[in-house]
Design goal:
The protein is an alpha/beta fold. Helices cover 32% and strands 26% of the residues. β3 and β4 form a beta hairpin.
Length: 252
């Protein structure tokens, strides 16, 4: 699994500040510097915000704050309570925040001001795991699995492999990858059925699926596209073209 990065040291100005009183001008400047330096992550479907019992998509999540997509955000300066929830969170993270920017019909940019319990450390762990994209390779050929593992690991992707369709389905449900690269001719569960099962899972429905196959039968490709596959790469692989395509899909 990706290694958890250590929790960043808090700014000397913020260290020891009572969480209950308002920040001074100097403290706000220091916190703004921390926000500019903090890691901001595209969350995909793995984490979202619960606000007043409704779920909202997140963008640019960091230890300092996030952008919450909503149509009718609170006014600028409002104090809000948010729960961060997601498939990669064992427990929700409860955080107090202040609205720094708001755009009607778009959302609100919030600054986190206080985490409940160990929420800050858990968010740091989550960000570390989301920073490294996960690629699941499903192929019954061991040499192909090894080849793709080497190719993707050199690009700092976290690679998981499965040798058949059933194993691939279970691994996808358990690990929640950012991209799935799979053959069509799989034992246990054929590729088209696997593709259909993946798309039927709410938390995997938007994960890009790439078909990697040596077959030239257009019917397979047409069926896989209808089931939601993002595209096709032929075997044997052309490494640079494969990597360019994977980078583009992961970055969406």
């Amino acid at each position: 699994m990706p290694q958890t990065q250590s929790q960043p040291a808090m700014s000397p100005v913020l260290r020891g500040r009572s969480q209950s009183r308002p920040m001074t001008v100097l403290e706000r400047k220091a916190n703004a510097t921390d926000r500019r330096k903090s890691r901001r992550i595209k969350t995909r479907a793995w984490v979202w915000a619960d606000y007043h019992g409704k779920q909202y998509h997140l963008r640019n999540l960091s230890l300092a704050g996030a952008f919450v997509r909503m149509e009718d955000p609170p006014r600028k300066g409002a104090k809000v309570e948010i729960r961060l929830e997601g498939e990669r969170l064992v427990e929700p993270i409860e955080v107090a925040a202040i609205v720094r920017r708001c755009w009607r019909e778009h959302g609100m940019g919030v600054e986190f001001t206080r985490f409940r319990g160990v929420g800050r450390a858990r968010l740091d762990e989550l960000l570390a795991s989301l920073a490294v994209a996960r690629i699941l390779v499903v192929d019954n050929d061991e040499s192909v699995r090894k080849e793709l593992s080497v190719i993707f690991q050199k690009e700092n992707y976290y690679v998981l492999t499965a040798a058949d369709g059933l194993e691939g389905l279970q691994m996808a449900l358990d690990s929640q990858p950012d991209l799935i690269l799979m053959d069509l001719d799989l034992p246990g569960m054929k590729g088209l059925e696997l593709c259909q099962r993946l798309r039927s899972s709410p938390h995997l429905a938007q994960v890009p699926i790439v078909i990697a196959s040596a077959t030239s039968n257009p019917a397979y490709f047409s069926s896989s596209k209808q089931l939601g596959a993002a595209g096709f790469v032929p075997k044997p692989f052309k490494t640079q073209k494969l990597l360019s395509y994977v980078r583009m899909l992961v970055a969406r």
